[in-house]
Amino acid sequence: MVKERARILVVGGGYVGMYTALRLQRKLKQELRRGDVEITVVTPDPYMTYQPFLPEAAAGSISPRHVVVPLRRVLDHCTVIIGEATAIDHAKRTATLTTLATEEEGTGARQLTYDELVLAPGSISRTLPIPGLADHAIGFKTVEEAIGLRNHVIEQMDIASSTRDPAIRDAALTFVFVGGGYAGVEALGELEDMARYTARYYHNVQPEDMKWILVEASDRILPEVGAEMGRYTVTELRRRNIDVRLNTRLESCADRIAVLSDGARFPTRTVVWTAGVKPHPILAASDLPLTDRGRLKCTAELTIEGVTHAWAAGDAAAVPDVTADEPGKETAPNAQHAVRQAKVLGDNIAHALKGEPLETYSHKYVGSVASLGLHKGVAHVYGRKLKGYPAWFMHRVYHLSRVPTFNRKARVLAEWTLSGLFKREIVSLGSLEHPRAEFELAAGGKPPHDPTNDPKGSS
């Protein structure tokens, strides 16, 4: 029995936000029905993106709509507000929100009061002041970016196939990926695999005409799968004629020329930035305690240290790793921990409302899997190292088991089955990003989008 009426505010609709709200729906079913509890979820998007599937969505193996989970469908006992929390005053238990209607209303941001706060906004791309980066690069954190990148790669192949200018052709067929973590390596592996397959349908574009370059500032890639599997991945990528440059940084991509710290220069129309993430700005706009790296100081029970009625997990939270041998170590900010933390977080909020003792989050990291394209991958799970087809198969099985809802599991499995029976789709739908272009031209407006004049290369 909940002691008094509780208003729970969940900031963020990603892994932690969605799974926590889902858990609370189940644990507090009777209280929600009686009106003793209300749960509000504030999120910039009406869906949760299952990010491990973004590379496969970019490669066309999974439809974009199956990579996302509609929040209103799964959180049917919560109030979902599409907007952003711009400030939090936990001392007063208020959050400042802007919504899609804020600008049109002209009344300014709204204030939302709460009793319990779950802060799970995730992270944003960590960028550096590199000349040309903001003008020409594309990230790889959202489903829109993944599909935009797929369209862009095929569009560049169309440009290369139709131009008579060798310089334009060379730049169109040069693809630079910055960052050797999961996002960069998997995106590069899947897209190179897709582009190599697509080239068979072009009379004048061969796989060897394309340059794929991976730039990593450290001396290894995929640190999560271990040093040995990381070295294997480098060897595998280089065997596919992918230029892997370790201990190298991107110094400029101004004027569509990627300049690297080792002196190399590549005219290119494609720069994909996946070099890390940083805490969401809402953390700094709150009165909650932060670590030196800008993450929320948390306890092993997933409460925010030093304050009451505030909780956090996932990328935004520095959670002590109670399974680690060395003191002071924190859990890694990855999906494996986020999903499990959300379960404990939801349970602990229910325990707190009912006056029950809290649980400690304890999960030993079991390993990692990564896809390098169709039937190719690496894995380091429970001390066992796998590569090639077994690792790729384990990658698919693991993530199929993790993707939320039976609906999504069934749809993804059906798509994989169909893609195994039929040929890949190689269509670029770049016009989706400019749906009014043709009508504007017909109505006497500006001419339709020309990808050759777009400073971002339609990405």
UniProtKB/TrEMBL annotation:
Record region (Disordered): 439-459
Superkingdom: Bacteria
Any one Gene Ontology molecular-function term assigned to this protein's record: oxidoreductase activity
Residue stretches making up the FAD/NAD(P)-binding domain: 7-342
Alphabetized InterPro entries for the sequence: FAD/NAD-bd_sf, FAD/NAD-binding_dom, NDH-2
Keywords: FAD, Flavoprotein, NAD, Oxidoreductase
Top-tier EC class: oxidoreductase
SUPFAM superfamilies: FAD/NAD(P)-binding domain (SSF51905)
Family from the record: Belongs to the NADH dehydrogenase family.
Name recorded for this polypeptide: NAD(P)/FAD-dependent oxidoreductase
Source species: Streptomyces justiciae
